[in-house]
Amino acid sequence: MGKNSDAIGVIILLLLLAGTMGDKNGKPGFSLLKGLEPVSMIDDFHRMVNVMEKLDSMGQMAINPPKLPEPSQLINTSAIPNLDGLMEMVGPLLNNLNK
C-alpha cells in the first residue's frame, strides 16, 4: 500500500499547491485547475489507490497461489459404498441381456 498511496499523495500535494499558487496577474489558482474540485479529486485518487491495491493483491495471488487441500481431505471416502460387490452382481445380468 505504501508505494501506491505515496505516489498518489505526491500527485494530490502537487495539485493542491498548484491550485493555491497565483499567476502573473495575481489571480489565485492555476489556469488548468480552475474547473476542478480538489475534494472530489482526492476522493477519486483514494478510489484509484484502492483499485491498485486490489489488482496488486490479485497479481500476488496469481504469482503465489494458495495451496489447495488434497482431494482426500475434501471427500469423505468412508461414506462412498464399495461398488465391487455391485459389479459382480450386475455383470452376469448384463451378460444375459446381451444374448
What this model shows, in words?
With 99 residues, the chain is an all-alpha fold. It contains 4 helices and no strands. It has helices spanning 2-20, 38-63, 71-74, 84-98. 0% of the residues are buried. The mean pLDDT is 75.
Unreliable sequence segments: none
The run of helices and strands is: HHHH
Chain-averaged pLDDT: 75
Number of strands: 0
**Major beta sheet summary:** none
Give the proportion of residues in helices: 55-70%
General form? rod-shaped
- What portion of the residues fall into strands of 2 or more residues? under 5%
Indicate the radius of gyration in whole angstroms: 33 Å
Structural class based on helices, strands and sheet pairing? mainly alpha
Quickly count the helices. 4
Give a nutshell description of this structure.
The chain has about 100 residues and is an all-alpha fold. It contains four helices and no strands. Helix 1 runs antiparallel to helix 2.
Please describe the structure with a list of short key phrases separated by commas or semicolons.
99 residues; mainly alpha; 0% strand; rod-shaped
Question: Would you spell out the secondary-structure blueprint of this structure?
Answer:
Layout: H1 2-20, H2 38-63, H3 71-74, H4 84-98
